[in-house]
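Pasting as-is:
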Amino acid sequence: MTKHYLMTVCVAVLGVSTAFAQQQKKAAPSSKPADQGPSLAVTMKFIQENAAAGKLSYTTFVSDSTQQGMEWKNSTNVEITNLVADPKTCGISFHWRAEVNGRVSDDADYSLNLKDVQDIVVLPQEQNQQKANARSGHPEWTPRVEPALFTLVARRPRGVENAFLFSEEEMAGRIAKAMVHAVELCGGGNKDPF
């Protein structure tokens, strides 16, 4: 396999499986009871109206530390559509479409049951991609993403993750806060006392 193909695969996997960051912002469950704050219906409506950031386009420049001067780039378009946040089922469903260098790399429907979510993190897409590279066996690949994007990752058991991309860190943080509240109201969250 070529490096370009592997990088394309790494970017395509972002929609279903994203990696962890060294300096991630973790949206921890609050210490107040889950029944305080907005209702589940209001929270899910906010998520539905704001979590699909529209079509985002970015370029990832990748350098290989094992080969001086080796760099390549991938142009990516990502779009989340048909996002539905259903308070009755505690579920979020959406359609994820990604194109890398003009070729469709992912075009499928996904769902997220908030009862299964253990935690929510927000991190720069560069850090997210660096971890994805390491997990795919290429820690020597260092990405630089332009323009800067932020990834919200909803982590579930057995390494299953859902990712949402944002152009603004503030909106990613607001959606993360809303999702943490919804997870609490739905009975999810990390139940490990340690």
